[in-house]
Amino acid sequence: MTSFDAIVIGGGHNGLVAAATLGRSGRKVLVLEAGNDAGGGTRTEEFAPGFSVSTLAHVINRLHPEVVSSLELERNGLRVAQSDFMPSIALSVTGQPLVLTGAYGEDVQGAAPSETAAWRGLREQLLQFAGILKPMLIRRPPDLRGNMALSETAALAMLGVSLKRLGKEGMRDFLRMLLMNVSDVLDEHLEDDRLKGLLAFDATLGSHLGPRSPTSLLGLYYRLTGEVAGASGAQVGAAGGADAVVAAIRSAAEKAGVRVRSNAPVGSILVVRGKAVGAVLENGEVLRANTVVSAISAKTTFLNLVGTPNLDTGFVRRVSNIRTHGNAAKLHLALDELPQFLGVDEAGHRGRLVIAPSVDHVERSFNPSKYGEFSPEPVMEITLPSLVDASLAPEGACTLSAIVQYAPYALKEGWAAGKPKLQAAIIAQLERHAPGIGGSIRHAELLTPVDIEQRYRIPGGHWHHGELQADQMLMSRPVFGAEGYDTPIDGLYLAGAGSHPGGGISGVPGLNAARRIIAMKG
């Protein structure tokens, strides 16, 4: 048996952030990663000879500045600048695309002057309201059981001050809009279907919600609480992709003395008299530690690794009911040549291309997923990573990466039969917007939620490790009783995307969990 101060289960970016933070506090830390390398869904992998892509995440839009500064990621090789900001292109087959540039639409190209002015007003309001929620993301959620620390009480007080500063009318609008659906908000302010479709897509990306679903505006707020290079709502596709972020975090961790073991799947968490005292690998090896940090799914952590005999029945029921069914697929294409999307210039092809022509179209794409089916005209976000990093494809060729909504985890006909049909529907949709692309496809890889579940050990294939909706956020994330990174098992903490504040490449769950451990244990 080998002993450590802390064992971190899961070598994704949150696990590495937690490990690096604990290592910098002087602890002896071991990271156990089931796969052949750290990084999780942010890894860049070859999917066809000579063609590589970031396997799940392909845009960086919420890496928290406190993670960057506290781990000195820029000193560890991270290079992200405002010059890397990606435009968002709302594609159209009936006219010119609409282009948002800067940090989430600071400038708009292709819209009427009146629409541009209306968007600027709405954008300012959305960023202001998202900014009120933003400080809560870097803090532990409020402890409603009466054990709030002074810092948590102060955070709630500051939220009240921020609301008061809005004035009566602003406060009324904030409270009115908080749980609205994004479609109604867009209809109040905008007219351009291309712009409204893009915003509706962004609000619902990765979730089991349509733009007319209650609370869907929260998804857009969540997106706008993220920032890159000091700009809220910005997004980049830096050289090296999401893998570059992981490399910088891993470098910081290893400099802090953290040891990372790959191909080391954990079979169980060792629990003795209600306390986590280590981990047992699937091969039977026992590793002991004073603290165990799980940066993987809460469902897997409690139901599989801890085991239900060690947990209260009510807690097990709550964990079992976390909604984790993914609703997005990932497509990778190896192309013989650069595709030409209708009306898009050279700079636009280096951006984020979105097929979501209207709110109605997004809603129609969502509707079949409620019944275990997918839309014949799916909506999607497309990037061409090899235009940013030429090493990802052979000379003259191109990689395409697309996140496709909506692909229900529990497909009624089963994914064995449904996968080829969804791939054909996606290619047909791409062909409408980039004529001739089908003839240049050398290889295609489609990852359904079931594929994501199996490859990355994420229950339901949900990249947030659980729906990011009002009843699964803040002090309800992942469930009551494990909402503040602590768990019912003494010495066991959560640090994955299923914890507050949620998924995306932010590093915040890992940072918050590590800070909680340091505060509790010194």
- Widest beta sheet: strand line-up: 7-6-5-15-16-17-14-18
Structural class: alpha/beta
Count of helical segments?
16
Shape, please?
globular
Rg computed from alpha carbons, rounded to a whole number of angstroms: 22 Å
Largest sheet: 8 strands, mixed
Overall average pLDDT: 92
User: Which residue ranges are poorly predicted, with pLDDT under 50 across at least 5 consecutive positions?
Assistant: none
How far do the termini sit from each other? Answer: 25 Å
State the share of residues found in helices, binned by percent: 25-40%
Q: Based on DSSP secondary structure assignment, what is the total number of beta strands?
A: 19
Strand % is 15-25%
Explain what you see:
It is a single chain. The longest helix is centred in the N-terminal third of the chain and has 21 residues, at 113-133. With 522 residues, this protein is of the alpha/beta class. It has helices spanning 13-24, 65-70, 113-133, 150-165, 167-177, 182-189, 193-204, 217-225, 241-255, 298-306, 313-320, 346-349, 359-366, 415-433, 449-456, 508-521; strands spanning 2-9, 29-32, 44-48, 51-54, 88-90, 98-101, 107-109, 227-228, 231-232, 259-261, 266-272, 275-281, 286-294, 328-335, 352-355, 379-383, 398-405, 441-447, 492-494.
